[in-house]
Design a protein that fits this description.
This protein has about 425 residues and is α/β, with parallel strands linked by helices. About 35% of the residues lie in helices and about 15% in strands.
């Protein structure tokens, strides 16, 4: 896997920071979530095959092949490919006949909540564990009402939820259990690969994800009946050429996206190696900086796709947002995740204006997390430069805070995809 070569302007003092008038570290900005682009020759070979067959969608051979290879990779009975991860989640919610209320963390990408609200199901926001950033099973029990039909856990940063506790609650209370595994492709805990937990697990294969089909997603399940239902639902309920036996929608993956996935799948080991090295380099270079914690889950397999920092402003004397601004000025387009929390986004902010009172850990984390660039776009020199900017900022909090105040309005950057 080739690394992108970048010119780097390293910093020696606070005056060198771009926010303080120096030159940016990176003339070409580094994004979080740079896409994994496969060997063009292999991708085009697969695409040309689809063009020669004149079969571009509707369950083509590349989609069938990708589903089989993904099921083998995840060690699950069924993998149902879809056009994107959000539709995958919506299909699973409907296939499991969820209604009324479903318990879900607020610390997640808003699509997790929207997939429920879109189907007129009420998301009930649950707090997280501060150490794992995943839904807190101890908080779930008090949120269950007669209207509760399910729980959705989210494997944040690829950190696997406390699956045993969640499965126990779901069995005991007769609830469906789904997992949003958009961050967790290739991860494992407790001797099981992600994809095998709950009734089903949902993956996103968006361009910024660890494994990408450009746009796409999948539902992994070991339930034969559920898998058959999902396959009907993603194709308008068709069970044959002109026989419709179930309500459905258009959730199919096309052959071009499947080609991208098939071209990428053999190279995931290389990406894990790169991500692991990057994460270790960040951890080493940022070690000992007061108020900075590099997140790292304790589990047997992790894709290292996200380098997430917690910035404790009470210790650093510098807010997370001021550090974010300084990094942006230096060409490091770090991001706040999942700021400001689903409960502080619309329509949920209007529906539940006081939800934050029940989500103290979520509220705190939303104001502390910063995600840094990784993947094939960065190397040790890039990470050294990024860590250098962070060190200078934390060593000079008042100077940086004043510079941020003088700089005025912060330009909003669109994520790269």
């Amino acid at each position: 896997m080739q690394l992108m070569m970048r010119e780097i302007n390293k910093k020696a003092s606070v005056e060198d920071l771009a926010i303080c008038g120096g030159r940016p570290s990176f003339a070409t900005p580094l994004h979080v979530g740079s896409p994994l682009v496969p060997d063009p020759a292999e991708f085009l070979r697969l695409v040309n095959g689809a063009l020669e067959r004149n079969w571009l969608t509707n369950g083509g051979p590349l989609v069938i092949q990708l589903e089989a290879e993904l099921a083998k990779h995840l060690n699950v009975r069924h993998c149902v490919a879809t056009c994107n991860g959000t539709v995958a989640l919506e299909l699973a919610i409907r296939a499991l006949d969820l209604r009324g209320e479903v318990i879900v963390p607020s610390f997640t990408f808003v699509a997790t909540a929207h997939a429920l609200q879109w189907q007129e199901i009420t998301p009930i926001f649950c707090d997280i564990r501060p150490d794992t950033h995943t839904i807190d099973p101890e908080q779930i029990e008090r949120l269950i009402t007669p209207r509760t039909t399910g729980i959705i856990g989210v494997h944040v940063w690829g950190s696997v939820c406390d699956v045993g506790a969640l499965e126990g609650i779901a069995r005991r209370r007769g609830l469906a259990l789904l997992f949003d595994a958009a961050h967790a492709f290739g991860c494992a805990a407790g001797g099981r690969s992600v994809g095998n937990f709950g009734d089903a697990e949902i993956f996103s294969f968006h361009a910024t994800k660890f494994f990408t089909t450009v746009e796409g997603g999948a539902i992994a399940t070991n339930n034969d009946v559920l898998a058959e239902k999902l396959r009907l639902m993603r194709n308008f309920g068709f069970a044959g050429y002109d026989r419709v036996i179930h309500v459905g929608t258009n959730g199919k993956m096309n052959e071009m996206c499947a080609a991208m996935g098939l071209a990428n799948l053999p190279h995931l080991g290389d990406l894990v190696d790169r991500n692991t090295h990057n994460h270790q380099t960040y951890s080493t270079l940022l070690a000992g900086i007061r108020g900075i914690r590099v997140y790292s889950p304790k589990q047997e397999r992790w894709n290292h796709q996200y380098v997430a920092l917690e910035v404790d402003s009470n210790v650093t004397g510098l807010s997370r947002d001021s550090l974010l601004r300084a990094l942006h000025e230096d060409g490091v387009l770090a991001r706040r995740y999942f700021y400001p929390g689903c409960h502080r986004m619309e329509p949920y902010r209007s529906y539940y204006p006081n939800a934050g009172l029940l989500l103290p850990a979520t509220e705190q984390l939303c104001d502390r997390v910063l995600v840094l660039p990784t993947g094939k776009q960065v190397d040790a020199d890039s990470i050294e430069a990024i860590a250098g900017v962070i060190r200078l900022c934390i060593a000079n909090p008042e100077r940086v805070s004043n510079a941020v105040s003088r700089a005025g309005e912060h330009r909003e950057y669109q994520p790269q995809a």
